[in-house]
Amino acid sequence: MPHATASWLVDNTALSFEQIAEFCGLHILEVQAIADDTAATKYTGRDPVRAHEITMEEIHKGEANPDYRLVMVKGPDPVRRTKGPRYTPVSKRQDKPDGIAWILRHHPEVSDGAIGKLIGTTRNTIQAIRERTHWNISNIQPKDPVTLGLCSQRELDALVARTAKKAGIEAPTDSRLAGDREALIEELRRERETQQRLADEALNAEAAAINDVATILDPFSDNKGHV
After folding, report:
1. Same-domain check for residues 150 and 190
2. Which of 98, 81, 90 is nearest to 136 (CA)?
3. Structural domain span for residue 106
4. Shared domain check, 149 and 100
5. pLDDT tens-digit readout, 29-74
6. Is 26 part of any domain?
7. Ranges of H-type helices in the chain
8. Does residue 191 share a domain with residue 141?
9. How does pLDDT run across 69-92, given as a tens digit for each residue?
10. Measured between alpha carbons, how far is 33 from 144 in angstroms, rounded to an integer?
11. Among 69, 82, 143, 179, which one is least packed by beta carbons within 10 Å?
């Protein structure tokens, strides 16, 4: 459950998005979407410490050094799947045609069989969308299947890379973070520092308020010996 684990790490640690993404096997944009609460699905956090997959000492090492790569104690128990198409929640099945249309438009080299396995659909549906004979073709809008929650960014990237290799063409690279990767990391660090500073200021203000109340209740506490 990498997304649920990532959600817990975002909420309960000061690890960088890169560290969390690498530990959970996700794309950094997926972790960012979870942190910004813009992911297609709201995940309930899963504690990897209680699952004995990582120790708090290892997490503290990562928090102290953003370049540190977390070491997993043991891998999560593998999820056994039976043969058959990928299961898609009922709430997302209506989004499948949009995801299929996006792949057909942006990655026409991907075979129908590969699309079917990735999205969890049939060749007949893919063919109907390709030939624009689908019963609902007028309402189908190409949308990124990762954004729709139909697959992960890593799965899509791996499929495109495999297809490009077989076809002897250069696989497209994800350039969405090109040029501002470091800026994104620096911005996230500044946000964390700002949040920490605000928290410290709030604590100091609370302590000062308590001292003021104590002085009002006992005005002579600091003037002993004076009338």
Report:
1. no
2. 98
3. 90-167
4. yes
5. 888 888 887 665 677 788 888 888 888 898 998 889 888 888 887 6
6. yes
7. 2-12, 17-24, 28-35, 56-64, 90-93, 96-106, 112-119, 123-130, 145-148, 153-167, 181-217
8. no
9. 888 876 555 555 555 555 555 556
10. 14
11. 82
Structural domain contains residue 80: no
Question: Which phi and psi angles does 61 have, rounded to 5°?
Answer: -60, -45
Name every residue whose Cβ is closer than 8 Å to that of residue 34 and which is 6 or more positions away in sequence.
3, 6, 7, 10, 43
Q: 172-201, pLDDT tens digit by residue?
A: 555 544 444 556 566 666 777 777 778 778
Residue 81 lies in a domain: no
Q: What is the pLDDT of residue 105?
A: 92
Establish if 75 belongs to a structural domain. no
Position 105, amino acid:
R
HEC-encoded secondary structure of 2-15: HHHHHHHHHHHCCC
Report residue 133's pLDDT band, with 50, 70 and 90 as the boundaries: very high
For the chain, what is the domain count? Answer: 3
pTM (whole model) above 0.85 = no
The 3 state secondary structure assigned to 152-169 is CHHHHHHHHHHHHHHHCC
Q: What tokens were used for 196?
A: 């920490």
pLDDT of residue 90: 53
Residue type, 227: V
